[in-house]
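We emphasize that the prediction below concerns an isolated chain of 186 residues; any contacts that depend on oligomerization or on bound cofactors are therefore not represented. The input was used exactly as deposited, without trimming of termini.
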Amino acid sequence: MFAARRLIAPWALCPSTTDADVVREWLTWASVGMEGVVFKRLEDIYRPSVRGWEKYKVRETSEAIVGAVTGPPAAPRTLLLGRYDDRGRLQYVGRTTSLARTASAAVAGLLARGRRGHPWTDWSFSGGWGSQEKLVVTLVEPELVVEVGVDVARDASGRWRHPARWHRARPDLAAADVPRLTSPPR
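Result of the prediction step, given as a token string:
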């Protein structure tokens, strides 16, 4: 039996379908906050703490500015990414998954250590959602633009909720070419 006393607001009921054309239509709704679809076998039931259902996330390709790295700049492990806001301040938007050696080597030659007055001086970065672990980062000059794959999930600040997937460096673009971080609607 459904136990209503366990529900805590806010929550939303989600539609369901077995029609593939309907699912394809839903996947076009990313611009209104649709992150993806969850799918399962018809006979499966929800089991808390058990991974049995799958999620297809809507993904897009985007550019961001590298503002810091984990690991040494000569062999970065992950990139901390930013975008300028409407006031011209470099804001943190997310970080990449761990870089493959080839990607790390490609980026290393394009990075310069951050100079005095870096926009992220004295900032601290979390190791992950809900984590108390602080990342050890090296600030780099916010000049290198990279192309990444991200899902459309954002937090209230407009940051990517999940790590970005490295695609390539974009030395052909300047930081000013990267789309601005827009304030989320209130």
